[in-house]
Write a structure and sequence with these properties.
The chain is 73% helix and 0% strand. It has 209 residues and is an all-alpha fold.
């Protein structure tokens, strides 16, 4: 059993976040407790609360690492694609691949609920908004400078639809519904939706770089 003086405050934070992510990976967010996390790193729950506000804060900090990884993979995937459609397809496939690699970590992003009445921290809300930013950047040339609201709305619609596809795929229900892979369904979603966007805006296949 570790002692309080065994590690620096920063080391304890790193250990606690690593333990949280490991436990989330193994069993998901349901029933996860501060006591379990503290026991995993050899400290008391009180020590955790010296470094995190509460269990919600600890889980949100762990989820933020998942969001950062997803965003990094999406940025990597869009690199080298000059047109919106292939860029979005590559980004969607990267997103699907990451969720398959760590399904319970991805699930924790949506399954965790902070205590009733407690606002979502601004820093975490900004992390979530960051996921939409690269999609908006790719879509922007299709809408023009005067249609920022429509661009933001489209980014969120596409992301929400991809979330649904991914959720069904991870629950192994996609084959029952569609009989196609998540990647193929995402490709069709993007192609069909962008065709509608181009028809409304009158803008053709457009470079965003």
């Amino acid at each position: 059993m570790g002692r309080r003086s065994d590690h620096s405050p920063e080391a304890i934070r790193v250990m606690a976040l690593a333990a949280t992510r490991r436990l989330l990976t193994e069993r998901g967010v349901t029933g996860l407790t501060a006591r379990e996390i503290a026991r995993d790193i050899g400290y008391s729950p009180g020590t955790l609360y010296n470094h995190f506000n509460d269990l919600d804060d600890l889980i949100l900090q762990a989820n933020a690492e998942t969001l950062d990884l997803l965003l990094a993979r999406v940025h990597e995937a869009r690199a080298g694609h000059r047109d919106a459609e292939p860029a979005l397809r590559a980004m969607a496939r990267a997103y699907i691949a990451e969720t398959r690699a760590a399904p319970r970590l991805w699930g924790a992003l949506f399954e965790h609920r902070i205590a009733k009445g407690k606002p979502l921290p601004d820093w975490y809300a900004a992390r979530i908004a960051g996921l939409f930013a690269p999609v908006e950047e790719v879509l922007a040339p299709l809408f023009g400078s005067k249609h920022g609201k429509a661009c933001r709305r489209t980014a969120r619609i596409l992301w929400s639809a991809l979330h649904g596809i991914t959720s069904l795929a991870l629950s192994q229900k996609l084959d029952l519904i569609a009989g196609v892979s998540a990647e193929d369904m995402a490709d069709d979603l993007i192609s069909t939706y962008l065709s509608g966007v181009r028809a409304r805006t009158g803008i053709g296949q457009n470079s965003y770089l």
